[in-house]
Design a protein that fits this description.
The complex is a heterotrimer of chains A (282), B (355) and C (311).
Chain A (H helix, E strand, L loop, with lengths): L1 H10 L5 H28 L3 H8 L2 H34 L5 H7 L2 H4 L2 H11 L5 H8 L8 H26 L2 H9 L4 H30 L5 H4 L10 H9 L6 H32 L2
Helix pairs in contact in A: 2-14, 4-9, 4-11, 7-9, 9-11, 10-11, 11-14, 13-14
Chain B lengths: L2 E10 L2 E11 L4 E5 L6 H9 L6 E6 L2 E2 L10 E4 L11 H11 L4 H14 L15 H13 L5 E5 L7 H18 L2 E6 L2 H7 L2 E6 L2 E6 L1 H6 L4 H6 L5 E2 L16 E3 L5 E5 L13 E10 L3 E8 L2 E8 L10 E6 L1 E5 L4 E5 L12
Parallel strand pairs in B: 3-8, 3-9, 6-7, 7-8
Antiparallel strand pairs in B: 1-2, 1-4, 4-5, 9-10, 11-12, 12-18, 13-17, 14-15, 14-17, 15-16, 18-19
Helix pairs in contact in B: 2-3, 2-4, 3-4
Chain C lengths: L1 H10 L4 H4 L2 H6 L12 H29 L3 H9 L2 H34 L5 H8 L1 H4 L2 H12 L6 H11 L9 H12 L2 H13 L2 H8 L4 H30 L2 H6 L9 H11 L2 H35 L1
Helix pairs in contact in C: 4-17, 5-17, 6-11, 6-12, 6-14, 6-16, 9-11, 11-14, 12-14, 13-14, 14-17, 16-17
Chain lengths: 282, 355, 311
Amino acid sequence: MKNRQRRTRRASVIPGFGLTMGVVVAMLSLLILIPLASILAYSFRMSPGEFWELVTRPNVLQAFATSIGCAFAAAVVNCVFGLILAWILVRYDFFGKRLIDAMIELPFALPTAVAGITLSRMYSDQGAMGKFLARLGIEASYTKVGIVIALIFVGIPFVVRAIQPVLEKLPKEYEEAGMMLGASPFYVFRRVLLPELMPPLLTGFGLALARGIGEYGSVIYISGNSEREGTQVVSYVIMQKLNSGSVDYEGAAAIALVLLLISFFLLLLINVNQIAAGRRAK
Amino acid sequence: MYVEMKGINKNFGSYEAAKDISFRVDQGHLAALLGPSGSGKTTILRMIAGLEQQDSGDVIVDGNVVNHIPAKERGIGFVFQNYALFRHMTVFENIAFGLRVQKKGKKEIRDRVMELVELVGLEGMHKRYPHQLSGGQRQRVAFARALAPKPQLLLLDEPFAAIDAKVRKELRVWLKEMIAQVGITSLFVTHDQEEAVAVADEIMIINEGRLEQMGKPVEIYKKPKTSFVAQFIGTSAVLDDFDGFKGFEEVPKGRKAIVRPEFVEAFKNDNEKVRSLIPAAEKGVITDISFRGSTLELTLEVNGISLTTNRSLERRHVEIGEEMCVLIYRAYILEEDDTTVYKNQMLKGVDVEAL
Amino acid sequence: MREEMRDRGRQDGLSPKQGEGGGEMAFGNGDGQKSGQKGIVPILLIAVGVLFFLVMLVLPLVEVIYRSLKDGLESYMNAVTAENTIAALKVTLIAAVIALAVNTFFGLCASWLLTKFEFPGKHVLSVLIDIPFSISPVIAGLAYIMTFGRMGWATPIVEQINEWLGTDISLVFSIPGVVLATIFVTFPFVSRELIPVMQAQGSKEEEAAVMLGARGLTIFRKVTFPHIKWALLYGIILCAARAFGEFGAVYAVSKARGKTFTLPLEIDALYMAGSADSITQAFAVSSLLVALAIIILILKQIVEYCGKDNR
């Protein structure tokens, strides 16, 4: 290993290795890694028994179930609509296409708190969408349905932006080859295109899921945060433990650590998926 | 089964991809659509396949007008330029695709696929994925996949473009033999004249959406009908003012002409064997000599015009500045849209071929 | 059109993937390319897509504007120019500007390191840099509290430094804390945009510059920068969008309204106050951030467009 490093280092004539390496490692450690490690250190002050007791309290488990379940549901919905949006943006010409393309990233640009209060009002029983859903017998605000709606909002760009470039680069000959062999458009989609779009779809799904599980700002207003209704998300439970009056750093650190591990696991899966896809697309 | 196009027109916006194209390829023939980049040849192929809809005119397959039959129902095999093999499927699954669409039985599919795998010489590779194959092997898979549903007509878009120059020649021979063996009517697109000449029974030369000439390779080479064909086929430079050459007195003044290297013979002034030809020859001076692997290429200045000719290495040594006798057998004289072949009148009655 | 593009691709020895690539398609000018836009399926798909877009993305914007102006223009102006709002705007801008500067500097260093050199652990490093992108912002806030808060292990160190310097800087529940939290959540934004572009660019030109005797900064300024300027700007814009809008991370380390609150926190405070008036005020302040978001999206489009020509 050492040997290789020396060799490759000498091979590059471009200056700045030491400087940039120093800056990157220092900033990454000070700003990101050491603070995150503090959470780990804080958790280790507890005995495993205490830790286990903290993270398996009913309200905590319920919060994890809500966060993961709602994020999963939202990511699934986003896969369907994200695929449709990416498809029509790449394949068809229609009025307003450029506008939609530009606006897809609105959820990235719009502060989550603004999205949160707006969705909360829109889907409350007084709001425009809320009234409509109420007529269908669906209560949105202050229920899990509301959480899913908020997470659909924040997650949609991930899916669209993951699929779009792959779909653009997919040669048209691919479908034509299927067609020339006598397959119907739907058969071609299912057997030829979908397998090709699976890796980016999974990436988008993973990113939307990761974002959804940790989401705070856009969710807390529409969710109602009721322990009884099971509408507290994990981020909310952590934040509550930081609020003056009921400060509980141990509990916050323990839950945060579990949340971190879930995020890392998802990050790992996304990376593995992308590497595998890259290998096959050669 | 034969294929015919009748009065086909096709525009993409202001770009005319096909202008009144009509031709017919007979049962069992292998024809090439040859033309430069952007000439519309691929569009013609795609219209036959049904991947593109013509603005007017008829595509006729075996006497039936197929204009409104969608691509998937035309029963035509198509090999794409980059093969468009399905990356997530093995060789077996790729070839089986068209059979699965037809809901054939498992055993039938397996038998047919294995038969094709053997036919194209990929035994033992049917479990591989496209990215594990070489360019030539991919082409074989694409060919087998197109043939699997037993089409009556095979279309190939630049079948050799994605292959290394080295393997290309080998594959040409392979494809020609394979098509002859299967006996399928085939049409392929290429921009490489050497390829067209080597593979096809018939060549159609396409330029700017027009069919310039159709015929057997030798025919096209010997009797180019239009100035475009004369320039496109073979190596040749256009001479701006072909005038005052011995034996070409009939050529009208101020015409452009093409004189190919093989139309020109240069020999030393003291060459005894060709004494009888000297009255028909011009005097020229060698201005350049370059070595072309198996022959020498001489550039000679004759009557103020540069002509090139090839000279065997076995013949006597020549030098730059040396005066030579230059004999021109024939010339293509270009008119507006036509080409006329003029022969050297002074050589009438001389047995040129005996030289 | 089509044939020309194919032939070009062929001559360059490119696969159709590259030859026919996204660029042209994104402008939607190929007549022959969008074949199959007939029949019921495309119309249905477009209808579903557009409906989803309208309900999920457009309606919320309309809602914000409508709610912010519900009590008339005067109360809108009052809300927007309230003392707390102005203070929050200042904090937001300070945090955003510092975060932009820090992350731009980091992004340039990181992308240089990860694209110009080969070294063991490179892949791990690039994954570590992306961490803030996929973890809950609340965890970011929590991490700083655990480090620099009352109980944090680094607090004695900070106090010691303060003593030496005679200052009284606190890293949580203060403006520095807000800045740190903002830096954390926007950390990878610039490098994420730069790395793919610099990777595609390769190192040939820089190596040539070295051979011609150019030194570090000159190489960067004259050779690298012209290629990456649009990607850099794009990263900065994305970074700005997130910095202006960050809520969870900042919320954890900022408790003093009117002093360390950013605009999103101010919106939260107004909204949570619960009265009809304050909710309208919350939407009025929100409309500022909506305007900002739209400006950012427009800038993004412009930068994307310029970058396309440039590459």
